[in-house]
Fold:
Amino acid sequence: MANESMFAGPSDELAADGRTEPRAQSPEALRTGSERAERFLPLMLGLFVASGCAALIYEIVWFQLLELVIGSSAVSIGVLLGAYMGGMCIGSVGLSRCVRTSVHPLRVYALLELGIAACGLLMLIAMPFVQNVYTAIVGRGLPGLVLRGLLAALCLLPPTILMGATLPAAARWVSKTPRGLAWIGYFYGANTLGAVVGCVLSGFLLLRVFDMPTATFVAAGLNAGGALVAFALARFTAHAPQGEPKIEVLGGQPPRAWPIGAIGLSGVTALGAEVLWTRQFWLLFGGTTYTFSIILAVFLVGIGLGSAAGSMLARRTQSPRQALGVAQLLSIAAVAWCAWNLARSLPYLPINPALASSPWFQFQIDLMRCLWAVLPAACLWGASFPLALASLASHELDGGRLVGRVYAANTAGAIVGALGMSLGIIGWLGTQIAERILMAVAAAAAIAAFEPAFGRAGRRFEYDRRALGGSLLALSAAGLFMWQVPAIPAHLIAHGRTSALSLKSPETYLFVGEGLNSSLAVSRTPDGTVSYHNAGKVQASTRPEDMRLQRMLGHLTTLVPEHPKSVLVVACGAGITAGAVSVDPRVERLTIAEIEPLVPQAASRYFGEYNHQVVTNRKTRIEIDDARHFLNTTRETFDAITSDPFDPWVKGAAALYTEEFWSTVKRRLNPGGVVTVFVQLYQAGTPAVKSEIATFFKVFPAGVLFANTVRGEGYDVVLLGQRDPKPLNVDQMAALLERPDFASVKSSLEDIGFDSIVALLSSYGTRAPDLAPWLTDAEINRDRDLRLQFLAGFELNSSDAVRTYRGIRRYRRYPDGFFVGSAERLGALRDGIEAGSH
Structure:
């Protein structure tokens, strides 16, 4: 090579017009400048670690902020991913077109970091205004989808364009030789390892202990500190963009674009696999926010380590293009390795999460399992980036443009992979075929890296034997491994983290489906119990205690208000709660907000006899949407609303338990309206239960609690709030059950053990004023911190139900003045409540 200097030398001179221009440098001067610049290499690596850390903190915070506005469905997340990664792509290619090479790269880098910090802080300030505008003009169908995309672009494109430009900006500081560009791989790896720190820091500390504003301030501080260091470095390392001679073409080969295609296809495989495997690990570990942090951290660790290894290899190999092809070839086997582990190994390991004495021990086990399955593939994808750069090192003079093109190709491929998997392939074709598609794409990437095997030279066809051999090997490996891809086991979808334990329980799976947003199953046990599984656990069933809870929730929702003409049910599930609502003859319009399109189909087919065929009822309307987004954007109001969403430990579900959400619910209630919600006491620690109840009672300060017990101990509870609090008239409710048109309601209550309205109301547990002493240390769940998802996720495997209910039961006493009616009924009700208190 004509010049093996890694950094441009310090060689500016002042022109007649006052501008700084580079002058030609002697080899000695270039070598002196390079040696001086190399002393600052550890600082540059540190800058990229800080930048990557800040970027991941922002990503997690921004996604949570925007999901609260546009919803957390697969469509919404796909829009967010597309906007986020699209901005990175634009920034990576736009820098070389918008910023002259004469500007010192470190000054450009510093300004980019300051811009990112400013955008992060602005997002916190502007989000309330953005939300108000969005909810005022959003529509349904395609117009609503377009508006979601515009909002995501408006919020995410400015900062992500700046993020995407940082690596190409730094690339202008190094030479365009394979040795010089190998250090770009180190920068990329440092940035990725910084992202690992940001992922763990935000998921396990900043958001768990503090809130989104605090996390944003930390990220902005990292950006600002990095900018100051970069400005200082620019003073000591001058920039001479034209001081390097042109690089000779490696091996006399003409420049080709095939490595660009290879790295693009590698991006498709990497992000497609991340989306696919995250859904499977979500089942295996439990879909908590901690699970997502662990999975993302493992992916980033692998990419960072692979990038460092690829950079070292790029500096030593004479053929980085073939090394890139080998990396893609090996990734076919790595995808097959993870697919086999997720289907044939990990779900069968004898692991009982309930035995962990601390959640931290379970996190360690989950981390090891994830590393075992994912790390090989992630390392290979990480190595691909520096190898692609080295493959093209001799074809560009502007390092920013070269790095930008490679980075943009990889990011564009990542967009295709992420959106394709999340919005279509998984829900349409399923996991098994999705993994086969990933292997086929990896094979195509290998062939592109090896370059076409045949070419015309004069009148003869010539071929590169190594390229041809590599291409044939890629096709053979893909065909072999695709044939062996196992299907995802039904018991993993049904039982998730306890799937190995479920193998001892005989059950028949009536339905197993992978939908747009989640995977679900319906099973039947030998005793005839039918269960609906989602999020890797039983969400509803025909067991007596579950039927009692589901119908209590529905009947209290319609019996308490005087005129329940219009009712909203949040989450369909097995449809049993909605069915209890539907049989009330006064209900004229029943709306079910369900995020997963497969759920109503399964509820109708397998639970129709238990849910009164509610899905096909003429008064029922199904809205496929995130319930929070639906309530924020609809103009409709309701006489009653009942909510039975995912468990609060499921990432994203806590948004349906916040103070702001309940305030929205209250605004959507008509005068005299009622709201109910189910709160589970099992698989949730006492702090999480306190948070749920205290947050609800903060918005409904006259709220009440009804208990669903098993053998006198806690199982779950129903919270009830009124827009306009008033006593419950027991005589009026009893009279309703005696009407002929209420025969179905009366029969439904008798089926779950309530032979009268007094029996139903005797499940009264306590009310907000009486329970206040128990809730003094409760943490209110708000949009800014989503505290509940961290509390519930931390105690996912706890067995605190008995202790939690006994804490509540201490405050159970007859509520004078809350029930009104005849002396006979009130006396019977007092006896029932007081008997239950013991």
Q: What stands out?
A: The two ends are 87 Å apart (CA to CA). The chain has 29 helices and 18 strands. The chain has four domains: 38-174+191-245, 252-487, 491-534, 543-727+764-814. Residues 105-137 form the longest helix (33 residues).
